Amino acid sequence: xxxxxxxxxxxxxxxxAIIDTIEEPASLLKQSIREMEDLxxxxxxxxxxxxxxxxxxxxxxxxxxxxxxxxEEKLDLCFDxxxxxxxxxxxxxxxxxxQYKKNQSDKLTELERVVSELETRISDNKMLLESMKxxxxxxxxxxxxxxxxxxxxxxxxxxxxxDIEVAFIREKKKRSSS
Length: 178
Hints:
The protein has helices at 2-22, 25-80, 84-156, 161-177. By secondary structure, the chain is an all-alpha fold.
């Protein structure tokens, strides 16, 4: 059983090595850069959406404060006029509004936390993307330098047909004298 396991591992390792040599690092790096750019774009869209929700909740809280002030004025009038039933109705609205305001405030706090985390993630991803782009540029430069040196060295080698014939005759003489 151990022998089969070891052979399986060896086969998997060889397959991974073959795949690694087939994959071109520059193209993999370019694909990673595209994926990172797409991720940043998607995160920015989410950030805009969440920021809009934060603004809406903030506006809603301001409106709730304005309505609470109006209720206070109404309550003053009710108590001045000794209208207890209307005062109770307004107090009920105040309590409902206060509970709603607390819920909205809690939502806003949580949303602001999520926005902050998203902004941090976007910032980190932008730095990582910049690093990946720099590495890609270096890799492309290194690859082009290597291919240029390979091309220039292959261009410097000029072997004529006469050189081949002379080498062929030498090899033939060596083998016939042996």
